[in-house]
Amino acid sequence: MKAVHWLFALLALNAAWATDLFVLGHGFENLGAHGALLTALGRLTGLYGALALVLQLVLISRLPWLETRLGMDRLTAWHRWSGFWVLWLVIAHVVFITLGYAGQDGSGVVSELGTLVFDTEDVLKATVATLLLIAVAVTSARRARRRMRYESWHFVHLYAYLAVVLGFLHQVSIGQDFTQAPIGRFYWWTLYGVALGLVFVSRAGLPLWRNFRHRLRVESVVRESDDVVTIWIGGRDLDRLPARAGQFFLWRFGNRWWEAHPYSLSAMPDGNHLRITVKALGDGSAWLQRIRPGTRVLAEGPYGAFTADRRTRKRVLLIAGGVGVTPIRALLEEFAYARDDIAVIYRASTPRDAVLAHELDSLARWCGARLHVVVGRSTAVGRYGPMMGPGHLAAMVRDVRRRDVYVCGPPGMTEAVLQTLHELRVPESQCHSERFAFAA
């Protein structure tokens, strides 16, 4: 049974349990009373909202068992999608409860809302939680996200944890599943406890333990071009770190420990060093161009399912675009040791942008891989049609349908290549891609 099936099975099972506890708690009794149906719907949407919030915690907990099977990009995309469900369910909870109580009391909706917020125990906490969730949702919208610095967005997103705590306190104090049902209390305490425990262990406990154990430091810095550096990182017992070619870490350097940036490994881990290659694309990556040997490093990970484990065939095609060459270069090294049938395509706008092309060439010569460095504008049209289009790709790698294809590059390029593979009728199970960043 695949991890995704386990995840959805657990979600469906918990939804059934929550509904069953609601029914056993007489949630649908006395529906003939004025406003009772709306109140019941308010309670039910509140429970489903709490369940969706727990799902969000599990998705972003970075649980190694789940993350290495599904990929962090997929998990964070689901986290983002479920976040909007949380918001709509919470809003529905507020609307239905307010309308239901207003109907029961015979009062106006606005006055009833004021009474609930300011005169009812712990509802003010839930109101603050709702406002925090709205703020997180607004800043997570694509248009707003593009306008914000990562650090600012991340700071706002941390308030989601406060919203979880406040919402749970509200549920504990006045939720009928807590105040009137011992089984319900046990269920929800266990559910929240497990979810928060996963977050604490995976996002705090495990990274702290690994960093204490491995004591990572920058050992050397190699300049690849005017805006690209390769950083070699050493430490203790790195052979015990479960890192694979194609994975990435969240890196924190020196006195800027609060800034975490996802960079993939640009070389296969050898048990003695970890290597990343960084291009100056923002404030953090620009600062790393001047980092010095001896700087203390904190690493959280490894993350990602973009590894050789996803391969289904002996033949492999690796496609890299821009700085996306870093995990591709690491994968080429791992596949090279296995002496697999390998083809590599490296896409760059200009020869200057073809970072690590010389290393790809050396590895390709060593293992007998076929390397194609494709340089030019994305709109260029050649003998076989548009660059990286179906005709062009098939001309470079004629047996592409019989290969596993790994693609890493800018989002636009990655999507275009995946579309090309679809047009070439390469089975979806043979196409592997992953964004080396967090959607959350």
Automatic annotation (TrEMBL):
Listed transmembrane segments: 34-60, 81-103, 123-141, 153-174, 186-206
Keywords per UniProt: 2Fe-2S, FAD, Flavoprotein, Iron, Iron-sulfur, Membrane, Metal-binding, Oxidoreductase, Transmembrane, Transmembrane helix
Protein's organism: Amycolatopsis rhizosphaerae
Domain FAD-binding FR-type span(s) in chain numbering: 211-309
Statement: the UniProt record of this protein carries the keyword Transmembrane: yes
Cofactor(s) in the UniProt record: FAD
Protein name, per record: Oxidoreductase
A Pfam family reported for this protein in Swiss-Prot or TrEMBL: Ferric_reduct
InterPro entries referenced in this protein's UniProt entry, alphabetically: FAD-bd_FR_type, Fe3_Rdtase_TM_dom, FNR_nucleotide-bd, MRET, OxRdtase_FAD/NAD-bd, Riboflavin_synthase-like_b-brl
Molecular function via GO: 2 iron, 2 sulfur cluster binding; flavin adenine dinucleotide binding; metal ion binding; oxidoreductase activity
Gene Ontology, cellular component aspect: membrane
Domain of life: Bacteria
Compartments where located: Membrane
Membrane topology: Multi-pass membrane protein
